[in-house]
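Chapter summary example.
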Amino acid sequence: MSEKKILLGNEAIARGAYEAGVKVSAAYPGTPSTEISESIAKYEEVYAEWSPNEKVAAEVAIGASIAGARAMCSMKHVGVNVASDPLFTAAYTGVSGGLVVVAADDPGMYSSQNEQDSRMVARAAMIPVLEPSDSAEAKEFTKLAFDLSEKYDTPVMVRSTTRLSHSQGVVELKEREEREPVAYERNIAKYVMMPVNAIKRHVVVEERMKKMGEDACEMWVNRAEYRDLSVGFITSGIPYQYVREAMPEASVLKLGLVHPLPRKLIEEFAAKVDKLYIFEELEPVMEEQVKSWGILKAVGKELFTVQGEYSANMLRERVLNEKCKVSAPAQVPARPPILCPGCPHRSVYSVLNRLKIHAAGDIGCYTLGAVAPLGVVDSTICMGSSISTLHGMEKARGKEYIRNWVAVIGDSTFMHTGINSLMNMVYNQSAGTVVILDNSTTGMTGHQDHAATGRTLKGEVVPAINIAALCRSLGIEHVYEISAFDLDGLAEAFRRETQRDGVSVIITKAPCVLLKGVTFPNKCVPIPEKCKKCGACLRPGCPALTRNEDGTISIDETMCNGCGLCAKLCKFDAIKTEAK
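The structure predicted for these 580 residues follows.
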């Protein structure tokens, strides 16, 4: 018995894994992939965890697969970089239970530091890739991925994008197919990737990919839709929807398995259409391979961009030469990215700004410390990079150069890869101050737990990692915990610690203001008659504060969370805090 339900693409992927009988799911939260794990955690039959990082998540899934269970790891595209070490080797070892890697790319960089095409990573790793185009396919392709994984003895990647992950569609729900784990058989030659074994497994991988490419011509996920033969498109994923919308009469070769490509099917399609377009977001992964086969009439990136998201209007403009009239957007107030009212990071950054201290930054909400008016963060590369960046500065320019620098990193990001970087500073006798902004959550991706919060993805209460004790265990003598709203204490700590010759750590503690149950007891109220119009309270850029025409300030009580930062900055007692 089945029912139909409207699901996000991410929810559909989770449902597909559930129906396929997955036993283990591991992930690190990252937009646009986060909801996959949050959804699958609701199924009691599935063990689901937040791992410290994507590499660990992949290794957990690989271990479950070796033990004979179906397993999945999910991540955003930059997480694939972190997980690539075990994934490349897992392609050699193959699987026992089905192993699926979900990679959510972000064309348009809505929540990412780069645009990256995970198909290219999968191609380099020799891992097959399925790419669904709607929620219904997201569920079915995920189920198929487990079957293909076991049939061809390989990890399989399911590639999503932001548009698919966060769009909704009708999905037919079916019963879970319970599967007994595959009986374990010790196989050193298959699973121990020392060189003598890996050399032989590489041959197996090449033969497997060749066989899959041949079989792909008959797979139901690859289909030719013949209509008007004057024009044809080779496409996949969400771009398929744009082709059907903009040019419904065009012939389409819709590919669900985008690596390896079905050569015979593509050659047959290309021979039947007069004009041929390859419509794929981001990199010319399919285009390069198709043209390498001598199908030179295919038109791709010389017409379509390698940047950002595609659209139906792009096809209308660049293929049909239509000028698309776009309605003027509604006139709404500009809303630049900014830290929330009451955010503890704003308090910390306001002190760093006042002291003219630069910060090597990291990935998270606190990256917003780079924008005006705080303007503290000078660099952001990737997860955990802030500490290593500061270390590199010190080794390049010496200790005196970094006297007015710190590294800033969140608690979740510190657990992700910051620990390794801090270990490196200690081991290589560096100097520098690391500020861990501990707001008790993974804030940017929607407030997920991690190893230092004391709660698992399933909601179980567990011992929380003590970050201060962990830092001290590395041999760091100067480790301090301080309230993120103690302005004087912060200033003293920053002045003192940045002048040390060794490594020091300052942990600023205050929970994210958006966490459930977090409230400040007071509210902030301006006293206009005391206001000297100096603007000191406005410098941290809290959106709850605005300047009136007469130069005094107003506080929007619907936005103010009552953190009291503005009151502490006012030397004239023109802002008071009173009980709510």
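To summarize the output: The longest helix spans residues 195-215.
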